[in-house]
C-alpha cells in the first residue's frame, strides 16, 4: 500500500510537471500572438496615416482642379468654337501629362 501511494504521488507530480510545461508553452504562444497583434496594430496605424495623407493630397488636387476649371470656363467664354476646340485639346494633353506626373511620383 505504501508503494502504491508513493507511485500515485509520483504520477501526480509528473502530471503537474507536464501541465506546467504545457502551460509554459501556451504562455509563450500567447506572448507571440500579442507581439503579432501589436505589429499588426502598428501597421494598420501606419496605413491609416498614409491614407489620410493621400486623401488630403487628393483634396488639395481637387481644389486646384476646380480653380483651373473656373479659369478655363472664363477663357472659353471669350473664345470662338474653333479656338475652343484647340484650347480643349491642348488642356487635355496638359491634364494627361499632369496626371501621369502625379501618379508616377
How are the SSEs placed, and which strands pair?
Blueprint: H1 2-78, H2 81-104
Account of the 3D structure:
It is a single chain. By secondary structure, the chain is mainly α. 96% of the residues lie in helices and 0% in strands. The protein contains two helices and no strands. It has helices at residues 2-78, 81-104. The chain is rod-shaped and about 110 Å long. 0% of the residues are buried.
Key attributes of the depicted protein:
single chain; mainly alpha; rod-shaped; 105 residues; 2 helices; 0% strand
Strand residue percentage: under 5%
**From the helix content, strand content and strand pairing, which structural class follows?**
mainly alpha
Tell me about the biggest sheet?
A: none
Helix content: over 70%
Question: Rounded to an integer, what's the Rg over CA atoms?
Answer: 35 Å
Query: How many distinct helices?
Result: 2
Question: Mean of residue pLDDT?
Answer: 88
Distance between the termini: 84 Å
Q: How do the helices and strands follow one another from N- to C-terminus?
A: HH
Amino acid at each position: 500500500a505504501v508503494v502504491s501511494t508513493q507511485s500515485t504521488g509520483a504520477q501526480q507530480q509528473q502530471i503537474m510537471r507536464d501541465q506546467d510545461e504545457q502551460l509554459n508553452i501556451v504562455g509563450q504562444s500567447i506572448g507571440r500572438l500579442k507581439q503579432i497583434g501589436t505589429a499588426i496594430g502598428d501597421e494598420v496605424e501606419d496605413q491609416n496615416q498614409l491614407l489620410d495623407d493621400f486623401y488630403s493630397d487628393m483634396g488639395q488636387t481637387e481644389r486646384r482642379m476646380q480653380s483651373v476649371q473656373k479659369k478655363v470656363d472664363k477663357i472659353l467664354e471669350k473664345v470662338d468654337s474653333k479656338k475652343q476646340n484647340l484650347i480643349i485639346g491642348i488642356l487635355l494633353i496638359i491634364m494627361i501629362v499632369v496626371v501621369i506626373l502625379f501618379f508616377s511620383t
